[in-house]
């Protein structure tokens, strides 16, 4: 083989798209299943049962399509509605009425009626492409930013303008780490707040632990770390949540808050301001 120095331009000029077919056997089966559903104005529990009885996994996929839920979001919703125990075919066979009732509470019959009786127009294709692509990313950003705004509003209420947001702070031995709020400033914060809000399981949930550990490693021992989080998806990642709670129990994180703990966070911020003389 001839030895040759290649260039970026050469590689770029020779790139080609990796086009693949998105529809596999599972998708084709789901489309066939929903296409065979009789069109009528109202759907009920028997119609849901018909979806699940033939092929449970395919039926759950169809239910997700009607409800416009991702796999992770569907898991979270089913666990919330069904409580302790599984959410798969074994649970359905053991408690069919309870399972069907849970899907009714998720408004599956209404979603079926709305989708099946909908009269589409050509722009729906573009809307769906936008929703599943850019729209999904925007939803994630809004969840995270909404929780950050929640925390910042309380910080501002207590400390006025004496804080910095979305910054890299300097801690012990000049170590640095990123955080969402540094009080009173990023050069030598006395309080550091990390905010994480996700609504999907996956690597990002585990990444939260890495971000917290980076802060714990960098901050001074006299800097208080507060963690604000929320989202029902934690119920599907209790092992990761336990690791964070363990860090709180070890004193590495002072306190963990959710939006329902607003008054606790506000009270603790006021106490910290007084005891630290900020």
Automatic annotation (TrEMBL):
Keywords: Endonuclease, Hydrolase, Nuclease. InterPro entries: Restrct_endonuc_II_DpnII-like. Pfam families: DpnII. Signal peptide: none annotated. One of its GO terms (molecular function) is DNA binding. Residues 163-248 form the Restriction endonuclease type II DpnII-like domain. GO terms for biological process: DNA restriction-modification system. It comes from the Bacteria. The keyword Ribonucleoprotein does not apply. This is DpnII restriction endonuclease.
